[in-house]
Amino acid sequence: MDASQAQHQDGDPPEGWEQHKEAITRFYLEEDLPIAEVMKRMEREYGFYANRRQYLYRFLNWGIKKNIRAEIMIFIAITRERRLNEQGKRTAFVYNGREVDEAKIDRFVRERFNGRDLNQMPLDQRTKQQLQPDSYTPHPP
Known about the structure:
Layout: H1 21-30, H2 35-46, H3 52-62, H4 70-87, E1 92-95, E2 98-99, H5 102-113, H6 125-131, E3 134-136
């Protein structure tokens, strides 16, 4: 490890995380890269070296999350299905400032509900009040 890769005692690379936050966030969230690939890109493109644990710590501090808790995904899935059946409208959801990918919702429904009718499932009102993601009707492409 050369001087540019040296670590402070607290584990943070000397270059500083804030100056690389935009690139790290873009790679991880917008390009949907796994942490290992983000690390490689940051090393290759910016000369920024940090370990997986440091990235996870920064993501936690920055409030960056890729995964959506199961109770929120259940709410999203049920709401989407009911709105489609009752109003004939598609629904897009935004959670933590990012649009929830329809394929991710479909995969969750397929794995979690295995063909059960979502319209018959109760909607947890507590989840609805506390965790309601933003939703809207997307315009046709």
